[in-house]
Amino acid sequence: MAAAVVRGGPACWWRWHGRVRAARAAMVCSRTMASKTPVGFIGLGNMGNPMAKNLLKNGYPVIAYDVFPEACKEFQDLGAQVTESPADVAERADRIITMLPSSPNAKEVYTGANGILKKVKKGSLLIDSSTIDPSVSKELAKAVEKMGAVFMDAPVSGGVGAARAGNLTFMVGGVEQEFNAAKELLTCMGSNVIYCGEVGTGQAAKICNNMLLAISMIGTAEAMNLGIRLGLDPKLLAKILNMSSGRCWSSDTYNPVPGVMEGVPSANNYQGGFGTTLMAKDLGLAQISATNTKTPVPLGSQAHQIYRMMCAKGYALKDFSAVFQFLREEEAL
Question: Biggest alpha carbon distance in the chain?
């Protein structure tokens, strides 16, 4: 490309250069604004609520839906559009994120009578951040593909605290060529966005992570309980563990013993956080996958049984770190 010739001396050159810079800035601004088209968000629970708020904070108009209308009121007050069904979201947005509790919920939202696929536009990008069976993700991907749209599974790790702070880890499965388009949105809500492979591999990574998390939380609770019974101060014991080889996320970031840490569910009667029911569900998914692949997971199986017992004994709505309280009550029997 030939260089432009500017006549009229330095003053004219600076005026011309200023116009060029302004034109370039306008082009960049135009591209930025084009990318800030509305994003649909379905599922405004403990995790979905802060995730959708982070999209709003990053300048994305949000079109919201939740099966519980009261969950939407806060977003209406924040300027989001609230719809009557997932199909209505699909009619108004060509990029949609879903955050749902289980495989049946995901199937209903995507393929139900008022589901996304009833009104999805061709070329739409649908990102599911629920934790569901990898086989269900693959099933949904096929249904979405038939409608000319793109489906990616992108479950998260980090819990409610990371969701609020925008520091989630996303494990993404799907067509690699679409990864950057998904990443644009996911980086508004997470600090780590990792491509795992084809559809279903994000879910595979997530259920492996959560199986390990459950095992480590039970181990931390057992170790802390034993140390307390042996006369150790719980804060001192936690400090020792966290500078020793037993250190893990459950001990240094999410300690299950009340009074050891602030700002975690154990400091708030195990309210908030990641529910015991959801952990039992994820462990069930791990068990199904282990059976299907003939993979031995004895500790994962035991963890599943413990969390199922917790659900049956009144802990279903408490954070999964309440396993410490569960063990304390079991010892008293």
Answer: 94
